[in-house]
Design brief:
This protein is an alpha+beta fold. It contains 2 helices and 10 strands. The radius of gyration is 23 Å and the shape is globular.
Length: 168
């Protein structure tokens, strides 16, 4: 009789352990979505690519906000560069130059393009050479708290790139 009670106790403990494991596995993982429960914030990165010169690189992509709240890209980092910043190319009179920006806004239900000759992520003080075909991970941080990794593939420059902002 004692053996039967011990078997039941062990079975009950096993069931309890499985229930706890199942509940943890089905839990909501806010870190991946950036959703703090206060609204939907569904950011998607489309068509990422990069360009590189001998000492700098730039990353481009479209940020699509499928959510119902405005958001903004506020920071980027990559293991291939010691300095990573958000930049834009602007024309003032006859002069075209690149300048840093504090953030890149992405309106609710809209999208923002980072492209050659415009908004982009600038990587300086590269820690390794980047050549056409190489890939690296770019970590993006948003105002909403969302952090996401994007794989960037280095492509060659083309005639329609506009300004060569990768070499500035």
């Amino acid at each position: 009789m004692k053996h039967l009670k011990l078997t039941h106790l062990l079975a009950a403990l096993a069931i309890l352990a499985l229930a706890v494991f199942a509940a943890a596995a089905c839990g909501d993982d806010d870190e991946d979505t950036g959703d703090d429960g206060g609204g939907t914030n569904e950011i998607a990165i489309m068509e990422p690519f990069g360009r590189a010169t001998l000492d700098t690189a730039s990353a481009y992509f479209t940020i699509k906000n499928n959510g119902d709240t405005d958001d903004a890209l506020i920071k980027a980092s990559a293991p291939v560069a010691d300095m990573v910043g958000l930049h834009e190319v602007v024309t003032e009179g006859a002069e075209t130059k690149m300048q840093p920006v504090d953030k890149i806004d992405v309106p609710a239900g809209g999208e923002t393009q980072l492209k050659p000759g415009g908004l982009h992520v600038m990587l300086e003080e590269l820690t390794q050479d980047l050549k056409v075909g190489d890939t690296y991970t770019l970590t993006l941080e948003f105002e909403s708290g969302l952090t996401m990794d994007v794989e960037i593939t280095v492509e060659s420059y083309t005639a329609d790139d506009g300004m060569d902002d990768g070499g500035m």
